[in-house]
Each structure stands twice: as C-alpha cells, then as structure tokens.
Amino acid sequence: MKESEAGVAVSIATEYVPVRRLLGRNPGPMTGPGTNSYLIGKQRLSLVDPGPRDEAQLQSFLEAIGDATLENILITHTHADHSPGALALHEATGARLIGLKAPDVAGHDKTFVPDRLFSDEDIVDCGEYKIQLIATPGHVSNHICFLLRDEQLLFTGDHVLQGTTPVILPPDGDMAAYLEALERLLTIPLKLLAPAHGDVMFQPYAEIEKLIAHRLKREQKVLAGLDSLGACSLDELVVTVYDDVSPQLIPWAKKTLMAHLIKLQQEGRVSEDNELWQAQQ
Ligand SMILES: [Zn+2]
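Above are the sequence and the zinc ion SMILES. Below is the predicted complex in structure-token form.
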C-alpha cells in the first residue's frame, strides 16, 4: 500500500470489470493504513465499505463517481470503520444500502439500515456485472463478503485481512463459525481477495489456508497453555498463549482467546468454573 494516498482512486488489476480502491482517512492501530473502500463498475457503480463518516472522504467518493451513477452501497459489517459513512453517501446519491443490519450488541453502527432483508447467496444484478453475497459470520455475526463473479474477486471486509489476522469478538463473534466460513471460501472459485485493510491478495487459497492453520495453531497453544498452567484465569492464560503479540494488543487478544475457549468448551475439550478454565481429560 506504499503508493496509496487517502481518498485517491487507484485501479486494481481486474480483466473485465473496473475496480478502484480508495484508502480511507483513518489510519490507526486497528485499521492499519486505513479502511479500503472499493468502487466497482463503469457506469452503474457499487461501493464497498464507505468507512467512517467523513466529509472529505465523501467528496472523494463523489469525485471518483463523477458522471456515473452509484447504485449500491455494500456493507461488509457494521463496525465503526466500515459502515457509518453509508448514510451520507446514500443521501448524496440515492444508492441502495446492502448488507445485514447491526446485531444488538455494543460496538456496532446502528445508523446502518439496509434497504431490505438480505441473505446468504443473494445476487445483486448491476447489469454490467453481478455481485453475490456470501455470509461469513465469525469476526462478527453480520459479516458478509461480496463476490464479483466475473472477476472471481472477493471483497473480504474483515474476514480475511492482509498483513494481520482478524480479531474474533464474542459473544457476537464466533470462532467455530469463523473457521467454517473460511473453509467454505475454499470451495468458491477465486482469483483475488480485496480486504478492508491492507493490499489485494493474489493467492486466495494460500491466504485462506494460512489463516485456518494460524487459528488451529493458536488453538493448540491454548490447550498446551492449559496443560502447563492447570486451572487458570483468562488473564493468566492470555500472556502464555499470546506471548508473540505486543502488550497493547493484549486486550484484543483476550477477546479472541475467549472465542477459542468458547469453541473448545462447545466441543467438550475445556471447561470453566468460577472464571477458571481448564482442559478436560
Ligand atoms: Zn470489523
């Protein structure tokens, strides 16, 4: 992402349907260089993840849209760095709002209200191209990836990121669902992954398999940690299992650790009593 400048539309390597990426004006520890928004099509456009509400970024979108028509705003999920910009863009262009409504938990943008109820495998026909919704719960329950079928290009939101791994946020986020949703992507013809943070990835299956392996390795580390520590609290366990992350990320690691423990508990491999976790023999 070295050459990207916030708000400037940069074409990505597609064959038939033009796709441009606009980097958000929101770099930070959780967003990396910023949120990527993607503008799809020639005349009948769709935009993936407008990001936070930001007047300058809205102007950048309108400039990039130019004389074409924005028909759809596609929202991968309702975190603050993905969906809050949708409403102002909808008001400025009349584009439809597509995605799943926010779950009833903290940390989600409740201003995003989709135009109708959408569900897994729905197809949005834009004339020039078609986009298929792929439900990918895990990071959060209302996460959707968007498949541009003509290009076998998947807009992955926070489901698959470049350069980092997504946090899983229970109780709304779900590790078992996350792994299942990753496995499912391996059955879909894909050439490119376009994430919400980081660069486009050209080896989709290798990236997805790497992510699955990373999660399973971490799961092994959870079991090994419980083996060596015996019954222990989340705070004790997290420093053993996440000995490779920087201290300021430990609060986030704790959430993903909890997601691992919930999955293992459902599988009957660990148990919890009075906030102390231990392996089941
Ligand atoms: Zn997110």
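The helical segments are 55-65, 86-93, 175-185, 204-229, 234-241, 250-266.
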